[in-house]
Design goal:
Blueprint lengths: L6 E6 L7 H14 L3 E5 L2 H7 L2 E4 L26 H13 L4 E6 L1 H14 L3 E5 L15 H21 L2 E7 L6 H9 L4 E3 L7 H13 L5 E6 L8 H11 L4 E6 L11 H19 L5 E6 L2 E6 H6 L6 H10 L2
Parallel strand pairs: 1-2, 1-4, 4-5, 5-10, 6-8, 6-9, 7-8
Antiparallel strand pairs: 2-3, 10-11
Helix pairs in contact: 1-9, 2-3, 5-6, 6-11
Bound molecules: adenosine-5'-triphosphate.
The site of adenosine-5'-triphosphate (ATP) has 17 residues, from helix 4.
Main location: cytoplasm
Cofactor: Mg(2+)
Pathway: Carbohydrate degradation; glycolysis; D-glyceraldehyde 3-phosphate and glycerone phosphate from D-glucose: step 3/4
Length: about 325
């Protein structure tokens, strides 16, 4: 720990995710532990441009570890994508004596951080806060575990009504580019089929599978559909297609939507957030920059921001097999 960093800023940006408050708390308290000043920036990059800053101490972050969302609020800032906007942001940081930044957000937030750090030489460490789990360099992004539990719980509830009325439910979950939520929550909640962007099951095989389920004595079924699934039809078109081809099913659709982003973080996400906050601040003190903290093999590791956002997370093929076997 050999740098001249005295004042660290923290902000949340892009889509919110459960555990962001716990991460802010951890950054603020780690700063206090190392006798660093800590400044919170409200509303992400837009607040940085407008100088929406607030001094933090260890007590400023009491009673937030259990709260979803982000008390610093988040924003999408078009102005930060311009050189003039970033210069305004930098001038505000300098005026306030800020030497380093912890940025909590997703790939857009990290792209902005890389550009900003390159332009003005300010050290930045990222914390991956997004429910999609689509960032390379961490087995879990912040909020992913909470989202899985929220989705699993919602599917359990839908199953109650599905089995009471002999219904087939298509449940759409978040995941435009990746199917991690669909696959894991689908297995956890016992879904019959799981449609994800990484695989194309095919309409014929979907019908076959549903017919097989029916023949084997199942009277109700749940199919999980990730937003970006590859089958070529959205969830409502799927309902119409199956209605037409399998008239014995009473087919319904449930789109879970933004409730997947909310709620109190799980214990796993609170612990992860606490670890990530400590690692982020201590990495800045070690002279690191332009890197993201992540969980790999149960250890806190650093990955260059560039690799974190450019890489592509792989779907777990073992889980695909497990899902297939379980739906027999
Ligand atoms: P999520 O994955 O949940 O959507 P995110 O961090 O990817 O989160 P974005 O809206 O893509 O969310 O990015 C957050 C903010 O980062 C943007 O509003 C913008 O201010 C900044 N940003 C994104 N891309 C760039 C870029 N190319 N140059 C400068 N700033 C950027």
């Amino acid at each position: 720990m050999s740098t001249n960093i005295k004042k660290v800023a923290v902000f949340t940006s892009g889509g919110d995710s459960p555990g962001m408050n716990a991460a802010i708390r951890s950054v603020v308290r780690t700063c206090a532990y190392h006798s660093l000043e800590c400044i919170a920036i409200h509303r992400g990059y837009q607040g940085m441009i407008e100088g929406d800053f607030e001094a933090m101490n260890a007590r400023s972050v009491k009673d937030i570890i259990n709260r979803g969302g982000t008390f610093l609020r988040s924003a999408r800032s078009m102005e930060f994508k311009t050189k003039e906007g970033r210069l305004k942001a930098y001038n505000n940081l300098k005026e306030n004596g800020i030497d380093a930044i912890v940025a909590i957000g997703g790939d857009g937030t990290f792209t902005g951080a890389m550009i900003f750090s390159k332009e003005f030489g300010i050290p930045i460490i990222g914390i991956p806060g997004t429910i999609d789990n689509d960032i390379v360099g961490t087995s879990h992004t912040l909020g992913y575990d909470t989202a899985l539990n929220t989705v699993c719980d919602a599917i359990d509830k839908i199953r109650d009504t599905a089995s009471s009325h002999d219904r087939l439910f298509f449940v759409e979950v978040m995941g435009r580019d990746v199917g991690h939520i669909a696959l894991n929550a689908g297995i956890g909640a016992g879904a019959e089929e799981i449609l994800i962007p990484e695989e194309n099951l095919g309409l014929e095989r979907l019908l076959e599978s549903l017919e097989r389920s029916r023949r084997s004595g199942k009277t109700s079924s749940i199919v999980i559909v990730a937003e970006g699934d590859n089958i070529g039809k959205n969830v409502f078109e799927l309902k119409d297609y199956v209605n037409e081809h399998l008239p014995f099913y009473d087919v319904r659709v449930s789109v879970l939507g933004h409730m997947q982003r909310g709620g109190s973080p799980t214990c796993f996400d609170r612990v992860l957030a606490s670890r990530m906050g400590v690692k982020a601040v201590e990495s800045l003190l070690d002279g690191e920059s332009n890197k993201m903290v992540g969980l790999l093999n149960d250890k806190m590791e650093l990955t260059p921001l560039e690799e974190a956002i450019k890489g592509h997370t792989e779907i777990n093929h073992e889980l695909l097999k497990v899902s297939d076997i379980m739906s027999i």
